[in-house]
DNA sequence: AGAATGACCTGCTGGC
DNA sequence: TGCCAGCAGGTCATTC
């Protein structure tokens, strides 16, 4: 369900409450995308040392290892002192001395994976190929340009791929390309400095604003504390095929790239 | 090696 | 009203 802002808002909503807690039980439900990778008993007794984020993964640091949590397309976390019995789509509970962290994920594209350390093979497989963190100091114009210059694939696909920059999902990919005036089909390597600068700025600004606003992309999004996201970042092009462009009035178009929908304004976004 | 496809799983919407 | 096709926020493995 989440793009980066939702994952970050989720992290902030429970990181401080769970930090320092001792794990009392780990209760898996139906299979998720990947197996936990260890016996639930192995987690018991470990302490939660903090919660970080890398791309769309949450990293729950434990006294002896870490849990990689991914929300997939439809996952969400709750953290509360106690929670009712697991419902139909609750597929993982981490019971701690400070509350229960619960993953609800109807489509089960999400996962909770244990790794002995961040260098462990599982962690490397999942995190090793990830690109720049768009909200970090490392996300400079030069770094983005260097990454994009190396790929001839359409820019929309490159943004979604996560190897150059992480966290830009299907909704924000359309939005930032609109703000930068770039057609989604343009080869990444063909983007000139002017539009590249606008793209860099758009990625930084849009994601930062969305985090600030509490994760506003999703219809059903709510943080782990149960606070609903507002809908303040109205999409300029995403989901608006056939409607007039808010900037020029042209009709917003939709096309399929890699089986995902891309939305763009044919006038504001040049090939 | 990079780039395009398929796969995973469930729920909701829209058209007939 | 009911059924079915198509679509949905992600990303890894497989194929070309």
If you had to describe this structure to a student in words, what would you say it looks like?
By secondary structure, the chain is α+β, with helices and mostly antiparallel strands. The protein has 2 domains: 4-120, N-terminal domain of MutM-like DNA repair proteins; 141-264, Helicase, Ruva Protein, domain 3 (Orthogonal Bundle). Helices cover 27% and strands 21% of the residues. The strands form 3 sheets. A 4-stranded antiparallel β-sheet has the order 1-6-7-5. A 4-stranded antiparallel β-sheet has the order 2-3-4-8, with helices on both faces. Helix 1 (4-18) packs across helix 7 (193-212) and helix 6 (170-180) crosses helix 7 (193-212). The longest helix is centred in the last third of the chain and has 20 residues, at 193-212. 41% of the residues are buried. The mean pLDDT is 94. The protein binds a DNA duplex (16 and 16 nucleotides) through residues 1-3, 6, 33-34, 56, 70-74, 89, 105-110, 125-126, 151-153, 157, 160-162, 169-172, 217-219, 221, 258-261. DNA binds at residues 89, 107. The active site is at residues 2-3, 56, 260. Residues 2-110 form the Formamidopyrimidine-DNA glycosylase catalytic domain.
Question: What key phrases describe this protein's structure?
Answer:
DNA-binding; N-terminal domain of MutM-like DNA repair proteins; alpha+beta; 2 domains; Helicase, Ruva Protein, domain 3; 271 residues
Q: Major beta sheet, specifics? A: 4 strands, antiparallel
Identify the quaternary structure here: single chain
The portion of residues assigned to helices is 25-40%
CATH architecture classification of the largest domain: Orthogonal Bundle
Structural domain tally: 2
Give the overall pLDDT as a whole number.
94
CATH class of the largest domain: Mainly Alpha
| Major sheet strand order | 1-6-7-5
Secondary structural class: alpha+beta
Helix count, DSSP H or I runs of 4 or more residues: 7
SSE string: HEHEEEEEEEHHHHHEE
- How much of the polypeptide forms β-strand, as a percent range? 15-25%
The beta-strand count equals 10
What is the 3D shape?
elongated
Under CATH, the topology of the largest domain can be stated as Helicase, Ruva Protein, domain 3
Distance N to C terminus: 30 Å
- Round the Cα radius of gyration to an integer and report it: 19 Å
